[in-house]
Amino acid sequence: MWKDKLKEVIYILENSDINEIEIRFWFRKIKVTKSPPIVNSDFSNIASDVTTSITGKPSITVEKKEDVAPIVDANTFTVRSPMPGTFYSSADPDSKSFVEINGSVNEGDTVCIVEAMKIMNEIQCERSGVIKEMLVEDGNPVEFDQPLFILSYSE
After folding, report:
1. What is the pLDDT of residues 4-43, one digit of tens each?
2. Cα torsion at 58, 59, 62, 63 (round to 10°)?
3. Range of the domain at 95
4. Cα-Cα-Cα-Cα dihedral of 100, 102, 108, 113, to 10°?
5. How many domains are contained in the chain?
6. What sign does the CA torsion over 56, 57, 60, 61 have?
């Protein structure tokens, strides 16, 4: 099924002037690019980033800030936020967290709450396994599709 959809997306891309298509469906993302973008940079007016090495030749240092993604392998699953809001690990401040690190969780269990527009939305786990990493602290804002937990499972 995914192969047919991917072929359809590629066909649309090839027969249009669009250079890139990104499709998000539930918790999956497909990004197809026709050709890499062309970037023209004029480095003549970047004096603060030019440094001189020992040999006296100028070099340019470019730093690119990237999101630090957790390391995942074939037996891990990332529980993601289905909406933007505020992350809560328990039903109220005095209660115990829904899940603990190295604690087991079953498919359909509530793992956290995301508050959006004063509505408390219980987020349920899509797989059974063991929570290996909690990526968000209690009370912090989360974005759509932001990783919340890393779950380890065995098939």
Report:
1. 777 777 777 777 777 777 777 666 677 777 765 555 555 5
2. -110
3. 76-152
4. 30
5. 2
6. negative
